[in-house]
């Protein structure tokens, strides 16, 4: 784990959970899988506090644990998940996308789920934080579960994945006689297990929200559940089940929206709608962004029936079948987002999701090149992206700029990790004079570098925000005094001005943080 | 081998008037632009025998009216007439001058590099230098700086225009790439393509997929020619590279012209002279395969949040660290940005 990554994890933890939890989790991040005694030693905190911190972290899906027998004792190992910390920065994006898709009521439910990490329906209905009526709550909660935005927490969710895999491997090895396996056998075993997990992905979770009929006696006997056991017929949601947010699902929504937006920008609103509906047709099957390569092929007739009639598909000289014209225009476009899959049903079309993910990243990088180095550099970058490896002379000729200038831009891009050199030696001695130096760009390679830059930038933004707020600590204290809030004492002219300025600065920083999180999300998740 | 001997003895001689026989021979030779060997000449000049042809040829050669060349793969000796103008020019030259002249002439408009010229002439370098200087003074040859290698002197005949290889073509002015010119011209071309890319009735609509009247390279070539945007004559290749530039910019996209072969055929039948001229070039380049169409959404604003803030453009981004001498808490770029 890089330093920049730890840094932003720490500031997110400090902001969301306070200094104690941050301290515990930082140790987990830096040391990896650790047990209680390691934590006590490293944090110098009383075990009770550590335990409570861990409780918070487990509740928020950040820490997982595993019980491992060591000799006669069972030792519990804790492990922190970096991804789940970093994506806490994207909560605003999740909330926005859910609101846009499912409306205000769902947004309120999601807010509560995100606030608590894991939440049961029972708790949600009693807390009143959503300010929704019972019908609304049931209605939208069921909807979100159906759409898999909320998923049921299983026992496995709290268990460390690494430990789980170690265990699986150990059982497999034991099955084969218990002798240590060779490296190739081990790789094969790991691949098989990964495949098995993929197949079983959906089986681990219950579908629907209804309470299962099978109950053990203990559960029925428990007074808290007594009520639900009695009016089982009325309550459509099992109050005892805990739910968490399914980030992968939200990423799918965000990615699909982003892809539709590209079509919208390149052609027009109508094209955006076409792509959106093309993706919507198989959205329910998409588990995570990196899983699928292509969306399902949809025939243009099917597609036409799902389009929003409000959005016009304008074609010159009123075409007989505008949908086909739009699909063809999209297939013709340089982005190659949409492709024709077969001629059946008047033409079947699909969105190439792998390509779309790459396109989104490439667009991001292209704009970075443009903003940092200007038009000519962007042209060079695009030439390299289209033509793979070229030498300086060729680049200058294609870009119609002097070689000297081309070289200048190329080295600038090399320094920021947006272009790379491949040397092809003519002789075995690898002498520079007898070597071709070919330039190329690689979206995956640049992605890794850009992700690191994004971490550092996010860290910088958070540090600056902390500093800006700390510099006005006294003013903030004063604002929170009871007499100021009640209006007895007033802030002076200068103080009011400072408050306005602080709000503006912090607002700007937070806004940029969200944009950077989105930047990071496109690079990491799509 | 009297031909070769004749060349060796050819001394400095003033252009002399030709005898009637010599003129007949020269006229016959001139009718063969690629040169003719002795058998061809014999068959054309019925009553001449070998000897008289060779004697005549020798004297013509002395007077600088004939070149000896080898024809075809067999390297058979043949003769080629020089133009009258050239004959008068080289007639007054010394041997050394003639050697240099020949080398420069052979290089055509691509020119020959000074060092190569000296080496190949087989003359002593000092002598070669004087001869080259002399020829320069007489306005027989000239030198230019090639755009790719401005430190080399490249020689070519005085009356020739240096090739695009040397000058860099239409985009170069005084050996430098004229970026402003390229920029302005491509902006105009882009405007033109944009105008043709969207239906005039509703700019937000699209043309149907089978639409095939987007401009092609030759159409844009014609547009530039007619518009008077530039006084520099642009070839179709130049226009093509301009279009490629726009394509690489992401401002335009290209689409394969459907039914390319048919439309080509139709065009050949038309009487329009312009079209025919254009067509000749087009077939050489095959450029009308592509139609060009402007693209929306090529601008990059709002695409990334990183370069909109100081870190994305920071010159010391790599050096900046949490508690280092350059750190975000005291960053002056942040300060400017937050105040602005």
Description:
- Chain B: This is DNA-directed RNA polymerase III subunit RPC6.
- Chain B: DNA-dependent RNA polymerase catalyzes the transcription of DNA into RNA using the four ribonucleoside triphosphates as substrates. Specific peripheric component of RNA polymerase III which synthesizes small RNAs, such as 5S rRNA and tRNAs.
- The complex is a heterodimer of chains A (526) and B (340).
- Chain A is mainly α.
- Among the domains of chain A are: 84 residues, Arc Repressor Mutant, subunit A, CATH 1.10.10.10; 94 residues, Arc Repressor Mutant, subunit A; 82 residues, Arc Repressor Mutant, subunit A, CATH 1.10.10.10; 79 residues.
- Helices cover 62% and strands 10% of the residues of chain A.
- Chain A has a three-stranded antiparallel β-sheet.
- Chain A is globular and about 70 Å long.
- Chain B is mostly helical and 340 residues long.
- Chain B has four domains: 63 residues, Winged helix-like DNA-binding domain superfamily/Winged helix DNA-binding domain (Arc Repressor Mutant, subunit A, Orthogonal Bundle), CATH 1.10.10.10; 75 residues, Orthogonal Bundle (Arc Repressor Mutant, subunit A), CATH 1.10.10; 133 residues, no CATH class; 32 residues, no CATH class.
- Chain B is 48% helix and 11% strand.
- In chain B, strands 1-3-2 form a three-stranded antiparallel β-sheet.
- In chain B, β2 and β3 form a beta hairpin.
- The termini of chain B are far apart.
- In chain B, 25% of the residues are buried.
- The N terminus of chain B is likely disordered.
- Chains A and B meet through α14, α17, α18, α19 and α22 of A and β8, α12 and α15 of B.
